[in-house]
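User: Working on a comparison across species. This one is Glycolate oxidase subunit GlcD from Pseudomonas moraviensis. Can you predict its structure so I can line it up against the others?
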Amino acid sequence: MNILYDERLDGPLPEVNKAELLKTLQHALPDLDLLWREDELKPYECDGLSAYRTTPMLVALPRRLDQVQTLLRLCHQYHVPVVARGAGTGLSGGALPLESGLLLVMARFNNILHIDPAARTARVQPGVRNLAISQAAAPFGLYYAPDPSSQIACSIGGNVAENAGGVHCLKYGLTVHNLLKIEVLTIEGERLTLGSEALDAPGFDLLALFTGSEGLLGIITEVTVKLLPRPQVAKVLLGSFDSVEKAGRAVADIIAAGIIPGGLEMMDNLAIRAAEDFIHAGYPVAAEAILLCELDGVEADVHDDCLRVREVMLQAGASEVRQARDEAERVRFWAGRKNAFPAIGRLSPDYYCMDGTIPRRELPGVLQGIARLGAEYGLRVANVFHAGDGNMHPLILFDANQPGELQRAEALGGKILELCVHVGGSITGEHGVGREKINQMCAQFNSAELTLFHAVKTAFDPQGLLNPGKNIPTLHRCAEFGAMHIHAGQLPFPELERF
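Assistant: Here's the predicted structure for Glycolate oxidase subunit GlcD from Pseudomonas moraviensis:
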């Protein structure tokens, strides 16, 4: 069973005549690849969050910048909503199309334009795969640090739109920390250059504003990223624990000791068993939790840090701490973690992936809370996450063929995100808000803050044509969700009916 996105939830969208729009676009862009038949449109009805599906009115697959400019100008002229899509790997419904809109697929913008080993930069088009950047930079001893689990497939444009992270973001930062410059087009087709190849650019930091904006402000057409030299050495420790609480305490203790690992990941027993059956990484399947801690840098420092991390894990209650014997075992350890999401498919026909972020000190309590909520809703939850920066990825297992299970999974996911906010965290760390978490935005932000978000959106897109109904909820929606914040004893918008 799939949930169809109801566009009316966030206000009416303009009526668009499909035949007239198709004729207009074909006349203006005779060499543009346009899809409009039902069987052609179906592959684009969802992104990586396949529970939500909508068939787009039209799909455009441009190859050139001038085609994108013309498309945007015509959509602006005729008030046609536009949703941008990269590789379609997003997990929050951010690229969910609209029945009355154009889906702008940027996947054919997939060229690496220039690698500058001296400046340690790469200039690429938005459809280039994340991993392809590191592969192109490898002959120069360089790589691109952010490494989401989907890096073999996800596009750099999508990474910028979602501010993606990855296993190594604890030490090397999110996408925003590894960007120098982007080229974008506004809904009017105007070209903007945000950032520079210098250390800093004057004026407001619009580069940071666009990073994570989920396609609401403009269309990314080019990206310049920083490249880093490959570490001299990298070693991985695997710590086994008989409880997730002990593993959570070990995470906080490692950071408190002043150690910043290249990566610090945690998996619970459900995820361990699934990954081991799938990848045969050498995980201890009897453990209730494992920590993967990678330390990189120069040989002497890494050796000392390995000894310190081993001691911290043992003091926190680890039953065993193993160091990867060689590079092949190190790669297997990480392969198990990076394939944990697909491995869960061996345990359940469907799963729903959450993306909350919490302070590290709250890890033990939040993990206990997730277990309680899972029992309350009668659904299993596997925990696989970036423990070092508190970025949780609870995987809620369900069967969409069982009536009501998808709705229970959604409700449980919402409660987990609200728990993250309650302990001082956020509803998302790297997957974005999209459609999936739009209700929980009402729980995290008050009406004044949401109004500012809408003001920023309006400054770039006055008609609200770029990816409408995503990321920023209307205040009416928050009222319906029951999460309007009361300020000074006054309920905002008292004239709105509460449901």
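For your comparison, note: The CA atoms of residues 90 and 249 lie 31 Å apart.

User: Helpful, thanks.
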